[in-house]
Structures are given as structure tokens and as C-alpha cells.
Amino acid sequence: MADLDELIGFLVPNTPSQIQDIALDYVVGLTASADGFKILLDNHKVLFALLDLLEVDALPSKDLVFRALVNMSADAALKRQFTSQSLETLLDGVLSPGYVFADGACMILCNVTREEAGARMLWDIMARGGRQAEKLAELVDAFCNISFNTVKGTLDYAATLLSNVTQVPEARLALIDKQRCLLQRLLPFTGYQASKVRRGGIIGVVRNCCIDPACHDWLLGEDVSLLSHLLLPLAGPEEYSDEEMDKLPVDLQFLEPSKTREEDASIRKMLIEAINQLCSTRAGREVIKSLGTYYVMRELYNWEKDAETRLTCRKLIDLLISDEPETGMENLRDVDVPADVQRALEEQDAQMLEDFKAEVADDGAAAAVTPATTATTVDNTDDTTATADNTESAS
Question: What is the CATH number of domain 82-209?
């Protein structure tokens, strides 16, 4: 403990920079190992010292402070120790065009807000003075302006931050405010090929905004045309019959033979889940069925190699081709499923998932023994990472 107290003594603003560099580098090393993390968990003074350094503007070793805090904020216990003052400082940094550490600030905020309690804490900070809508608009503005940060910050993780914040119902309401059009500004990033983090984060935002059935009519209407943005990344180059083509949204008709699907399986799964949310009411299902969603899902199901995504697709297809429920049960969110039925459905899903995994394994084995006499295309959709969880470590 004496050694740790000595270390903390160097984590103060007036420490000579060379000594402070050594101390901070040691802390970063602690965050990179299980034993080191245990030391940090047993004594939160190191975290508090780093949060104090976060407030110092002219700190030569501030990059090391951010590296340590990014890693520490990934821990469930440590992230709860972040103060509202530190979160406000980080948010202000993200929203400052000349802030050098904006991307690091984004990553820390993403980790802290991953659970709803952290998201609520940040939203309450944004709501100070009744300016939550303005703060949210500022964050959307910064994100949508690719060159907002003038010192080469990308703000890609602002997408994940927005996704996390929209766990809070009030944040979702502010984002789908019909007068501000914030959600519509984010939708083009559902197909933003330059950054998987941006795509995945914004699709997470969209999925969260689909939770409330009260806004489904607006989301599916002409003001937003959300379904086209959800279906387009899931569509491939397949040809449809004239009858099927006529039902599809205009943006999905006569796609180029070179059209490719979203490459990340976890993002494809979120897209399908968002459509599934929109199917919770009869009115939503009618719109989604009328726009040929089944045809896109049919082709995706036949193409999909990721077992979990294929299961999610299959469940949506079953919903689209099934008969409408009886009167009084049209809103699927209001249906009370008995516990034994719920267990049976979960067991059925688990068995289907295992079957899909076996099919993928069999396909892979068959491909492995095929003589390599011609060039082949390898589908790597199983080799994916979760988009919202890649904020845990500093490089």
C-alpha cells in the first residue's frame, strides 16, 4: 500500500513531467493485466487521481491519462466511480473542434454509458439547465460533420455514444423530435463504408428508436422512410420477379449486380432486430409486408452463414408469413406469454441455433475438401466483432 501511495503522490499536476510520465506509464501497464487491475480495484485513489489530471489543461502526459482511463472505464466496478464532473469534461471535449483527445473522450464515455445507469448519468448532465435537446443536437452536429474535429479526431465512437445514450427513453424522444430531424440526419451512416464503428453505432441508435410503437407510423412514413435504410444493407445482387420488384421500396429496385450486403454479421443482426421491432403492431406489419420485406429476408436467409443472424432472420420471416393474431392481441408487445410457453420457445430457438451452426460447420468442411481447381470466394461473415463493445482498450 505504501508503494501505491507513493505512486499516487506522483499523479498530481505539479509533478515534474519526466517523473509523471514514468508513473502514468506504470498505471497504463497495470490496466493491461488481471493482477494490475486487481490493484486498481482494491484502491480507487489511482482512478480519482487520474480524473483530477483530466481537468488539467496543460498536461504533457495527458495521452497516458486517456489511455489508462479508456482501459479502466471498461471495468464494471471502476466505471461506476467516474464523477459527473469528469463526464461533463469529457463531453465538452468531444464537442470542442480543437480538442486533441476527442476520440479518447468518446471511448471513455462509450464505456461508462454502456449500461443504462451510466447512460442516464450522462443524459442528466446534458439536461442541466433544460438544454438536453440542444446538447443532443450539438453531439449529432459534431458526428455528422466528418471534419468537425480540426486536429484529426474522427469522432467515430460518437455513434456508439449516441447508441448508448438512446437507452434512455427521454433521449430517444429528443432524437425523434419531428421538428429537429436529428434521426434523419443520422440515417445515411447506416451504409457508411469508411467506418464499421459509425455504421454499427447508428444502426444501434435506430434499433433503440424502434422500441416505442407510438412512433412506428412516423418512422415508416414518408418523412423518415426508415425501412429502406434498414433493408438496403441487407440486400444483395439477387434478381426478383417483376411482381416482387414492384413491391420493393424504390431504393431497392434494380440494384447493381455488384451490390454487396453489410459485411458484419452483428450489424446485420441489429438491422433485422430493428425491423422486428417495427412489426410489433398490426399497422407496422402491414407496411412492412406491403413493401416486400419478405423477399429481401428470403434471399438473406439463403445467403446468411452466421448462425445467430440466420436465426434472427428466420424468426422475422416466420412473423411476416404468419397469420395475423386475433383481435386484442395485435400489439405483440402487450401479449402475455406464459412462462412454460416462453421456455419452450427459448428451447426451440436454442435447438435451431445449434442446427444452423452444424450446417455452417458442414459447409465449411465440404469447402475444405473441394479441389482448388478454380478461384473461389470465401465468405468470412463469421469472423466478426461486436460493434458496440470495441471501446475497451487503449492502443
Answer: 1.25.10.10
